[in-house]
């Protein structure tokens, strides 16, 4: 027999008084027929009915049931019965308590592990189950209503992180296998099982936390005036300049025919960090190139560093032009990530030869490429295709807008973490090599687009051979032969197509070669998205509890408020003080501190949700005992914190 239909009284007097009432109620109900229209308050409820909703017991040592006072029972003949408030009885520790439930309290909204029962198809706008009710309808409508009513949902009364879902664990293991197999020099030493186990905690994973903290530290870094005394304090609307790369003693321009330097700077008005690329000793001869700059500023892509602003300045003591880009901390170029320092852009680097520029035989070139592959380690084909997909995606957008990248080079492609590539320094070549004598600034764009495709082919070949000398004309055939030993025919055909200059090439023609590998790339991105969503769910709950702790800490032990030194020790604040001791200052039977994170989190979750569960609070001298609900404690917290906010004059609270 469910608890709702039983009367587990411990007092004989209460049972004797209930017998006349039960007999009177039975006599009234015996005159009713099944065809009568009953009010919803007198409708018969049986355990087999879909509207039968048992009341959850609030605790193991208490019994709660719903009963209606006999003085408020109305006859079924009255067409508009007066709604009655149910009276509840609770037996705790040998004492029987009687109380009336709040109007907004539902039958199943109290007790440890209580839940709000929602019946699909039979709930009102507030989610409270509708008991009784009527309304004629066809047979199909009644069948549909019965089908919907047979599905019930029990929602928890508190909100918390339920744990790492299974698909996120699969995603972690999958991405870890890709990182281990990529051969990209990753320092991760965890196994997939360790990764899954470490993610089972209720805090963000250590690896992700370290990555984010490292990027935040780099973003907040400030310059040391003693190390860089020549840096200006301000450049236009930017200050706090920090060099991002070591300036070479002898500048060696490669792509850009000018010396360049890169700085991190903070915008004076907004406080946002940006990357400033300075071109030394450049004087803007013509403003026609600003047409191309405006086109670049309007271009936004996930694999291109966004250009924000271009201006000239004399703050560095010369005539310089500054390109302002988005700042991506902890980025490194493909040149620094995948190629050793022994490589040279202009030829071989042989310490045993007195003339490094002397020509070498074919066997020496082949052996040198093999040594580079063995020393640097081979990249997995999955990683190379991932790079190709990202770069071709950015190139397709740029070419479609009538522009050319002109920055596809190992020294200009940034790796911003987790195999994410971004093209840096867009638009610089269009400005520094602009020919003012041309009537149409866009006339050379088709030629530059063909150069982009050739540069992409050289970059892929260099990555496959892990050597920059592999793209030299005399080493192309040797590099392609070595590439065929390790990688698929499709990748080799891609490089051959990109390096051929006999026909007009298009980035669109690369799509059939890439083929279904796009789906693998999309699969990896979605796996990563699942992991980040799981980590965000953890921190969402942690942030909510942190705001709750801030409110409690602001109220508890406050010396005075509005000239009242006893404010924190009286009224609602006293209950919050006892609740603080209940959560954080409990001890075991032998007096040792009771440290249980689950207890703390569970209590704070109930306080934040304001459940109807009761908690017993005891003063430190054990002379005062208060039994209150978490809903009352939440009300005390909100009222007390509202007083502090009103006294401080701050209009925004911690919501």
From TrEMBL:
GO terms for molecular function: ATP binding; poly(A) binding. Residues 516-554 form a coiled coil. ATP binds at residues 277, 326-333, 411-412. GO terms for biological process: mRNA processing; nuclear-transcribed mRNA poly(A) tail shortening; positive regulation of cytoplasmic mRNA processing body assembly. GO terms for cellular component: P-body; PAN complex. InterPro entries: Kinase-like_dom_sf (IPR011009), PAN3 (IPR030844), Pan3_CK (IPR041332). SUPFAM superfamilies: Protein kinase-like (PK-like) (SSF56112). Pfam families: Pan3_CK (PF18101). Its main location: cytoplasm. It is found in: Cytoplasm, P-body. It comes from the Eukaryota. The keyword Disulfide bond does not apply. PANTHER family: DEADENYLATION COMPLEX SUBUNIT PAN3, PAN2-PAN3 DEADENYLATION COMPLEX SUBUNIT PAN3. Belongs to the protein kinase superfamily. PAN3 family. Homodimer. Forms a heterotrimer with a catalytic subunit PAN2 to form the poly(A)-nuclease (PAN) deadenylation complex. Interacts (via PAM-2 motif) with poly(A)-binding protein (via PABC domain), conferring substrate specificity of the enzyme complex. Regulatory subunit of the poly(A)-nuclease (PAN) deadenylation complex, one of two cytoplasmic mRNA deadenylases involved in general and miRNA-mediated mRNA turnover. PAN specifically shortens poly(A) tails of RNA and the activity is stimulated by poly(A)-binding protein (PABP). PAN deadenylation is followed by rapid degradation of the shortened mRNA tails by the CCR4-NOT complex. This is PAN2-PAN3 deadenylation complex subunit PAN3. It comes from Cimex lectularius (Bed bug). The gene is PAN3.
């Amino acid at each position: 027999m469910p608890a709702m239909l039983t009367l587990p009284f411990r007092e004989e007097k209460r049972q004797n008084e209930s017998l006349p009432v039960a007999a009177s109620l039975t006599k009234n109900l015996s005159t009713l027929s099944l065809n009568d229209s009953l009010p919803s308050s007198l409708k018969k409820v049986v355990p087999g009915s879909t509207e039968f909703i048992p009341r959850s017991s609030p605790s193991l040592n208490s019994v709660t049931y719903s009963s209606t006072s006999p003085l408020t029972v109305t006859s079924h003949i009255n067409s508009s019965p007066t709604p009655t408030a149910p009276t509840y009885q609770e037996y705790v520790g040998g004492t029987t308590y009687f109380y009336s439930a709040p109007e907004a309290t539902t039958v199943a909204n109290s007790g440890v592990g209580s839940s709000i029962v929602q019946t699909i198809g039979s709930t009102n706008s507030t989610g409270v189950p509708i008991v009784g009710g009527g309304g004629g309808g066809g047979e199909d409508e009644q069948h549909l209503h019965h089908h919907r009513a047979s599905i019930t949902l029990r929602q928890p009364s508190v909100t918390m992180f339920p744990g790492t879902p299974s698909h996120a664990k699969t995603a972690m293991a999958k991405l870890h296998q890709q990182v281990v197999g990529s051969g990209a020099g990753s320092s991760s030493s965890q196994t997939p099982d360790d990764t899954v186990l470490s993610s089972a905690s209720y805090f963000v994973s250590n690896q992700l936390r370290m990555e984010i903290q490292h990027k935040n530290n780099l973003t907040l870094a400030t310059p040391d005036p003693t190390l860089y005394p020549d840096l200006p304090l301000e450049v236009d609307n930017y200050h706090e300049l920090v060099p991002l790369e070591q300036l070479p003693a002898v500048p060696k321009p490669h792509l850009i025919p000018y010396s360049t330097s890169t700085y991190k700077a903070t915008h004076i008005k907004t406080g946002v960090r940006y990357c400033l690329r300075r071109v030394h000793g450049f004087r803007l001869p013509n403003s026609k190139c600003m047409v191309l700059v405006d086109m670049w500023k309007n271009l936004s892509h996930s694999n291109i560093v966004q250009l924000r602003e271009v201006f000239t300045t004399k703050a560095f003591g010369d005539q310089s032009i500054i390109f302002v880009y988005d700042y991506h901390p902890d980025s490194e170029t493909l040149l620094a990530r995948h190629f050793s320092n022994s490589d040279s852009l202009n030829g071989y680097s042989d310490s045993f030869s007195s003339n490094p520029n002397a020509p070498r035989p074919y066997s020496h070139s082949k052996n040198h490429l093999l040594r580079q592959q063995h020393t640097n380690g081979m990249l997995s084909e999955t990683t190379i295709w991932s790079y190709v997909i990202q770069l071709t995606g950015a190139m397709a957008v740029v070419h479609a807008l009538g522009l050319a990248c002109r920055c596809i080079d190992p020294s200009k492609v940034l790796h911003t973490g987790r195999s994410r590539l971004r093209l840096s320094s867009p638009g610089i070549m269009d400005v520094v090599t602009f020919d003012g004598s041309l009537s149409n600034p866009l006339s050379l764009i088709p030629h530059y687009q063909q150069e982009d495709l050739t540069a992409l082919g050289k970059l892929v070949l260099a990555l496959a051979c892990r050597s920059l000398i592999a793209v030299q004309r005399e080493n192309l055939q040797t590099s392609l032969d070595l590439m065929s030993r390790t990688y698929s025919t499709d990748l080799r055909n891609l490089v051959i197509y990109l390096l051929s200059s006999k026909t007009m090439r298009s980035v669109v023609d690369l799509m059939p070669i890439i083929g279904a590998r796009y789906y693998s790339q999309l699969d990896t991105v979605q796996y990563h998205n699942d992991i980040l969503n799981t980590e965000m769910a953890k921190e969402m709950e942690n942030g909510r509890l942190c705001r709750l702790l801030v409110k409690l800490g602001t109220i508890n032990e406050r010396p005075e408020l509005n000239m009242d030194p006893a404010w924190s020790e009286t009224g609602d604040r006293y209950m919050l003080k006892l609740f603080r001791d209940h959560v954080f200052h409990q001890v075991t039977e032998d007096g040792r501190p009771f440290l249980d994170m689950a207890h703390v989190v569970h209590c704070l979750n109930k306080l934040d949700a304001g459940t109807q569960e009761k908690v017993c609070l005891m003063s430190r001298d054990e002379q005062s005992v208060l039994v209150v609900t978490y809903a009352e404690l939440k009300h005390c917290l909100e009222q007390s914190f509202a007083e502090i906010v009103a006294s401080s004059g701050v209009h925004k609270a911690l919501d």
